[in-house]
Design brief:
Elements (H helix, E strand, L loop, with lengths): L3 H11 L14 E6 L16 H18 L6 E4 L9 H11 L3 E8 L9 E6 L6 H19 L3 E7 L2 H4 L7 E8 L3 H7 L2 H20 L5
Parallel strand pairs: 1-2, 1-3, 3-6, 4-5
Antiparallel strand pairs: 4-6
Helix pairs in contact: 1-7, 2-7, 4-7
Length: about 220
């Protein structure tokens, strides 16, 4: 894995914080869904790192960086802002209510084989009006995390996850597995603040470039 500090230096240099009364008219709306929460910890790492904590930190960092670097050029809404359990219905209901331009669900992986590693992206197994766009966004997320952070890209898969089924007809939607907490190396990487920031920044930049390409209403 590349050092997170390198990607942070490069991206903060390329995208200095320049705010000049940014208009909020017709900004892309993105729903970020940190998985699990509350009594549902999700995956538990070999050293006790909890999936629910990692994904919430990444999501919160995306919100902070969106303001600090891009002065709020994306409208980001989290399905949870604290360690609370939100129903799957409410998670997808938020995207529907917002008429979101993209939906990103954040998770961490777990496997019996301790050597399993890398990131995975999922799109809805069923075909929808946004299936092709979901695949494009998912592929780009994986490619960028691999290019900038050297995270092993395990590719894009299809899954029958409820959050994807319910958003497939609303907007491009992707579920991102950020790494395996059952792998000690990846667990340590994901628990570090610079890594959290680097991952959040790559995700944010990828989504912004996607939206800047005209992929929103």
């Amino acid at each position: 894995m590349k050092t997170a500090l390198r990607i942070l230096f490069l991206l903060f240099t390329v995208y200095p914080p320049l705010c000049y009364g940014q208009s909020t008219h017709n900004l892309p709306i993105v729903s970020i869904d940190p998985g699990h929460g509350g009594t549902d910890s999700g995956a538990i790492g070999t050293q006790g790192v909890l999936e629910k904590d990692i994904v919430l930190k990444v999501a919160q960092e995306m919100v902070r960086l969106n303001q600090d670097i891009h002065c709020g050029t994306l409208e980001l809404y989290l399905t949870r802002y604290t360690d609370t359990l939100v129903s799957l219905k409410d998670r997808t209901g938020l995207a529907k209510a917002l008429k979101a331009d993209a939906y990103i669900s954040l998770h961490c992986n777990q496997a019996q084989r301790k050597g399993a590693q890398g990131i995975e992206m999922y799109v809805s197994k069923g075909r929808g009006r946004h299936t092709e766009a979901s695949f494009r966004l998912a592929n780009t997320i994986g490619q960028n995390l691999n290019l900038h952070l050297s995270l092993k890209d395990r590719g894009v898969k299809t899954g029958n996850f409820q959050v994807l089924r319910k958003t497939a007809q609303l907007c491009p939607s992707v579920l991102v597995e950020l790494g395996f907490l059952s792998n000690g190396v990846e667990e340590e990487h994901l628990s570090k603040k610079p890594s959290i920031t680097a991952i959040a920044l790559v995700l944010l930049e990828t989504i912004k470039v996607y939206c800047d390409g005209g992929n929103h209403q």
